[in-house]
């Protein structure tokens, strides 16, 4: 079934009529279940058939991006975010329509843009001119006005008046003698920050013979091209003589100051000012109208923008895919991987595409027999997707091998919870993830770009399960923010005589130790979880450490045995009885015998020893190591222990050569003696080859399974029983293929032997090291409990330790805040990530190394889904 | 005698509970539910792992070899709060 193994895939050949090709490929994109193969791998991207169409689409995308940029400049226009996908293939003619539409829109926008710039430039000039007129009037009025009235003259920008000279003469520090008596004036506007340099240069170049006056313009002016606001000031330069005038003008040019004609007569200035103001008002109206027109155009474009993006992307991807096809006169053909169960759906989509295109010739799907390993396709829903992702992160499962995902759904949160084990923290975690799940539709629609948040969001179901299991293990560890709950009443009682003596003590740090003989006699254990008395006991860790270590070993051995059993399922599926005999059985005997015996001893000791014979209770670790050293135990767990242990050890030791030699020997003998091999092969030779499509697949499948036994070891891969080239299929009776396969491939006995040796060593040493590795379950849960306790006793206790209300009520809230923040940061985030990582490692290494190969490649179908989900993304 | 009976009662209660969740419920899930297999696997694994965990804690406390070491003040508090 498709849950425990990936989907069955087959390689198909697709023939499409040229007219129908576009629509059919579009329909394939909508259903997203077909992975196309590139039939022209040697062809350059520029030489493919549909290059022009792709180029057109890219042009359209460019136009869309330009429009988008323009829309974004106007902050108040909203681009709708969630566009419902119509699940429609854009028709081929839509491309032309869209192209024209976009071109028109782009041209219009560009025109508007340039007009607007021009208008704004004019506006700027007029504004500056107005400012110049306003300010310079002040300058002129400072001079003697009577002199000016007499000296009104010409059409150039000269100012007469020796009076001016006299008035300003002292200020300018000396006037060059000679030349005319006319004073030239140059007025303009310059950026404020350049003014100082401008003044200095003027002074130096004209040797102090010019006079500069300036005044700031208060309001900042906007630069039409860049849109920046600039601070400028008005300046006016008085000089005498033409040469100086030219120099001044050149300097002004150099500093990019804009010069304006400035009439010296007050009346003229006033008239000019009025004219300028009128023009400014007109220009403002025109500008406003242009802007509002532009806004309207952009608003109408913005509404359609996401839809257009999606359409263009879809069209472009269809043409990209069409480029993969092998093109001939009347039809296009391609090879593609298809999940077998979806063939009717795909056929229906193809028919729809053909009918949409108005073509009468149906598209043809025909199977291609192949020995290639198909891609791995694991169908997931929003719940299982998170778990499949973390499995695939280590390695995509090989084709048709057991998928660890359904088991990981529960074992991962469970092992996490064993390490995390706190009710309160688990509750917070579960509530947080529950909130994410509750609001998931809104969060998906918001399309946040925050990567870290999206990572947490993607794992919301995982985090929720982790939280729920943590609540359970927290109740069992009796740990609620480092406090225990006493629900059923502690089973440990302080006996009467001890209680009487207690009254005598006062504020003593002495301890009293409760003997189980007196305090626990004839009691049932605390029904659900750890007895609450341990939390307040000084020797809590002595008790808990021993327990948690034993628990870790028990859980570890169970997990690993489960992994080995999954490998059995793989062997039976791929029909490799040799692996069952030569690998599975010795593995189980080794792991189950030696470490299963350890588990047995742990559980037996819990039953067999209590306070009456605790003095003679043997230490299990020492017993275990003594077993390997074949020394007789000092204290016996049960009678006959020594003999049993010797037997188990011998069986375990015997498993090693079993794992090492049996399989290579059998393979070697088979290679030498093919006729004496399995009778399957003889049958196969008789049956001969069948030309039909489906049979062809089975034939390859059987071929590979047969060769799998003999053939897969020829592969240069680190694991020996890899399902490397098996197109595993449901076991069919009487396959084809043949013994002749063996002759074609080389038989490298050395290679096989080495691989088998590596595998054996890996397994045997791995058993010991992995079992010890599971002790991290103990280590992390201890660390978490200790951190939690430290945080409480060093932070929260302070807030609760005040006797009277008054200082207490002020101190408790900030202390609680500190405690809460530290709990979230250290215990939830840091410890949570840490436990997550370790649980992940336990799955990836300790669990999966028992059965998982992970050498597959992912199925990447041609699908519009990703494009639709990110319409405005580049 | 009382203790052994109480122990047995607690044990049988928990075993039956997890057996129901892990074995009975998966069997009665109707065929047409979409992710039937997945739910069955999840229930089975949950019950196995949770039951094992509970069982280990329970068995460990069955015959304790050491007792808690309490500070005097804690012991006094226990006598007052939990035992009267």
Can you characterise this structure?
- The complex is a heterodimer of chains A (874) and B (84).
- With 874 residues, chain A is α+β, with helices and mostly antiparallel strands.
- Chain A is built from 28 helices and 13 strands.
- In chain A, the strands form three sheets. In chain A, strands 1, 2, 10, 11 and 12 form a five-stranded antiparallel beta sheet that branches. In chain A, strands 3, 4, 5, 8 and 9 form a five-stranded antiparallel beta sheet that branches. Chain A has a two-stranded antiparallel ribbon with strand order 6-7.
- In chain A, helix 10 packs across helix 11 (405-420) and helix 11 (405-420) crosses helix 15 (460-477).
- The longest helix of chain A is centred in the middle third of the chain and has 57 residues, at 266-322.
- The two termini of chain A are 39 Å apart.
- The model of chain A is unreliable at 146-180 and 681-744 (pLDDT under 50).
- Chain B is mainly alpha-helical and 84 residues long.
- Chain B has three helices and one strand.
- Chain B is elongated.
- In chain B, helix 1 runs antiparallel to helix 2.
- The mean pLDDT of chain B is 90.
- Chain B has helices spanning 2-28, 36-60, 72-82, and one strand spanning 69-71.
- The longest helix of chain B is centred in the first third of the chain and has 27 residues, at 2-28.
- The chains are: A alpha+beta (874), B mainly alpha (84).
- Chains A and B meet through helix 11, helix 15, helix 16, strand 13 and helix 18 of A and helix 1, helix 2, strand 1 and helix 3 of B.
